[in-house]
Amino acid sequence: MKKVIAVLIVISAVTLHAEKISLVGGTVINPADGKVMPNATIVINGDKIERVSMGKQNADSLGRQIDCAGKFIIPGLIDTHVHFFQSADLFTRPDGADFNSIRGYKDEVAWIKSHLDDDFARYLRCGITSVVDDGGPMWNFEVRQKANATAKAPRVAVAGPLISSVSRDKLDLGDPPIVKIDTPEQARDFVRKLVERKPDFVKIWYIVDKDHPVDSFRPIARATIEESHAHKIRVMVHATELETARAAIEEGADILVHSVYDQPVDDAFVKLLKDRHTILCPTLVVFERYGRVFSHQLNLTPEEQKWGNPEVIASLDITKIREDKLPDRVKAALADPKAAMDRINKVYDVALPNLKKLEDAGVTIAAGTDAGNVGTIHGPALFREFQLMKQAGLTNMQILQCATANAAKLFGGERGAHIGRLDNGCFADLVILKSNPVDDISNASDIETVIKNGVTYPADSILP
Does the pTM exceed 0.90? Predict the structure, then answer.
């Protein structure tokens, strides 16, 4: 009997997957080219978009019809910077603030692994149908495999452990997410090891401080990039200082996954990014969240409060922790909350104008959040990122482009070529909105229906 039920479930899923449906009468917004098509029809056949056209076409060819009059249809959103090895709760980065006395890191990782399906669903609830995991332990590749086998999940591209100039021993449980590399040959060997897992990217964590100057790590960055490119794998780099980012691009990096925030970008840097066709993911929201959590000034959006994991959010109330259990970094933030905000604002005073300058110059900007870091909530953090991009001076259409067509370029590969646009032959990943995001970017979260791979999910049915 169980076998019969299983077969019926498979048949039902295949039938749903292969269904022909049409979205009729809505306004189609295609950020890839900025076109807005009122009273349009999108025909979906199986997991692909068959056609997008003006008006209502021959009714007999439309299959099951969904009335979208008064609605707005955009491509599925893409978050190009997440980390599934982190939960966003208070205990997820003991290298930054050690709460092992309250929750051991081993227990934290076990909890994370047991809640991956929950993370997947929360991305989908936010209209995010694809994500890029920018690095984690080797079990990151299992996350990609699990997502690919789960209907209610975004498409996932991954990098493996981060190749770093520094170590993070408190994150090492035998499968570290960050690996310190000391020589170019070590870098090449480690890239070859990663290649066996078929990574979508190789990630460099280019950390610079008084003990690790920019130039000391350049030979390792160069070897990592050369070896990765030899295997036709693109390289993304965490670099938050202007000279670090410049060095990474000069050595051949394809993607920068943070804003420069130590000083304004200069014209030579802008030209370098354009000449090399570099993609930049500004990753703004994460800059504020550690400081806001630790100083008890967290500013979660309504979307985060509604669609974020409630257990994660509950953990972020730092006042629930006994004072004798608080790390010194947290005690200092609580003692001087204004100083914490001053540091955040100092970052944004540089990072936001830098983003506007790069956008105006035509550099490809892809939206991402660094979700999973303390206080940066898996799924709805993207809507706070949109607020900050708007604060930087980007238009609503530009923000949508960053989270769709541009993000698809960062996602890359065969899948990246078929997401982020509403066009014939693209994957049927779409979001039906109740209000117009071109008028107000906050409307991007006014979601009625999410369609992933041609399967329709009423928004309110996605989360438990």
Answer: yes
